[in-house]
Design goal:
alpha/beta, 397 residues, seven-stranded mixed β-sheet, three-stranded antiparallel β-sheet, 14 strands, globular, 14% strand
């Protein structure tokens, strides 16, 4: 057989001559991602195996079981979505919303607004209740909204990353059962670092991410669906409109049949398995307590420097603290200084809090007293240079 001719007119317009990748060391104390545990990074670097290899299938079961432990749930359909936390977020809505379903979203931050956007894209009739960014919803407000709107799904954010608020969940699941409504919960910034009891709280759907409290790089989105949500999925009169996130198909791969659906990111699941193993080794209740201790150390230190915290203490997230930028200080300039001079990332505000707060994350592997003290020392010694010459109160409206 004659060989095919080799093209001689290949364009080199986009050909780059690059050195091997080199990345700086960063201490990620922003809203996420956080630094991955070294053991997790070692697992990610292992040689891939097939996504239907018997050893990988065994690992899949381990990941599912450890996710159930971290969430304190017995849900059968508990899997890591092959995608970031936003993919798992979308999966909760894609699988349960049919056109015309009424979805009530409790909005008190940026990620509540994202739930509104996603639900609308799947044809839901979306209604909202709102609180200022930095406050939580009362049980009475939720009860009134459920009685008024009679939704099919109530979507809430447990840990609002944009504000640092932890939403109290006591009794809300019971209210949803009384109104025949599914309870959907965003646990992106709480899984692994903040007490979560999905079954006790009667949560029907939840999602999270790999890169915060679990100390794994971004790339997987933990997802869980309880029996009531599973029944809603099975009763659909239309196909799930998102093939990739269709849990009725994914269940055939993550369930007992192990039928091919897509090529899973095996190395990401190596990392997830190790991250969850380390969490179980520490004990979930001990991880919760560690995050709380270090957050309280940070809060006390910031307040001793005259800085104001945006959220009342009883509602603060141990994983994410919002600090009000003092009047006259360029918050972005100070954050950039910390990054360029010291290799430390601190986040800025989103949405209604843009330019008004810094967001400091103490998540997973990064939640240590040493990291707290290092950051407090930098605020104490270097923030004064960014203040106006006449001192003013550390507060914003």
């Amino acid at each position: 057989m004659a060989s095919l001719p080799i093209p001689t007119s290949v364009s080199t317009a986009h050909r780059l001559g690059l050195d091997p990748i080199a990345t700086p060391d960063r201490l990620l104390l922003g809203p996420g991602p956080s630094n991955a545990h070294p053991t997790v990074l070692q697992a990610l670097a292992r040689t891939p195996i097939g996504h239907l290899d018997p050893l990988y299938i065994e690992l899949m079961s381990e990941v599912q079981e450890l996710l159930r432990y971290a969430w304190q749930t017995d849900n059968r359909l508990t899997i890591p979505m092959s995608g970031t936390g936003s993919a798992a977020m979308e999966a909760t809505l894609a699988n349960t919303v049919e056109r015309g379903d009424k979805v009530l979203v409790a909005v008190n931050g940026y990620f509540g607004l994202r739930l509104v956007d996603m639900a609308g894209r799947y044809g839901a009739e979306v209604v909202t209740i709102e609180r200022p960014w930095g406050e939580a919803f009362s049980k009475a407000e939720i009860a009134e909204a459920l009685a008024t709107y009679k939704p099919t799904i109530l979507a809430m954010v447990h840990a609002e990353t944009s504000t640092g608020v932890c939403q109290p969940m006591e009794g809300i699941g019971d209210l949803c059962r009384q109104h025949d409504c599914l309870l959907l919960l965003d646990t992106v910034t709480s899984l692994g670092g903040v007490p979560l009891f999905l079954d006790d709280w009667k949560v029907d759907l939840a999602y999270s991410c790999s890169q915060k409290g679990l100390s794994c790089p971004p790339g997987l989105g933990p997802f869980t669906m309880g029996p009531r949500a599973e029944a809603k999925l099975l009763a659909r009169t239309t196909k799930v409109p998102n093939w990739y996130l269709d849990v009725s198909l994914l269940n055939q791969y993550w369930g007992s049949d192990r039928v091919y659906h897509h090529t899973a990111p095996v190395n990401m699941n190596f990392g997830m398995r190790e991250a969850l193993r380390l969490l179980a080794e520490e004990g979930i209740e001990n991880a919760w307590a560690r995050h709380r201790r270090n957050a309280e150390r940070l809060w006390a230190g910031l307040e001793s420097l005259g800085l104001a915290l945006h959220v009342p203490e009883e509602l603060r997230l141990p994983t994410l603290t919002t600090v009000r930028i003092p009047e006259g200080v360029d918050g972005k300039a100070f954050s950039r200084h910390l990054l360029d001079r010291h290799g430390i990332e601190v986040g800025g505000g989103l949405g209604a809090l843009a330019g008004k707060v810094w967001r400091i994350g103490l998540m997973g592997y990064n939640s240590t007293p040493e990291n707290v003290d290092r950051l407090l020392d930098l605020f104490a010694n270097e923030l004064p240079a960014f203040r106006p010459s006449a001192p003013v109160a550390a507060a914003v409206g």
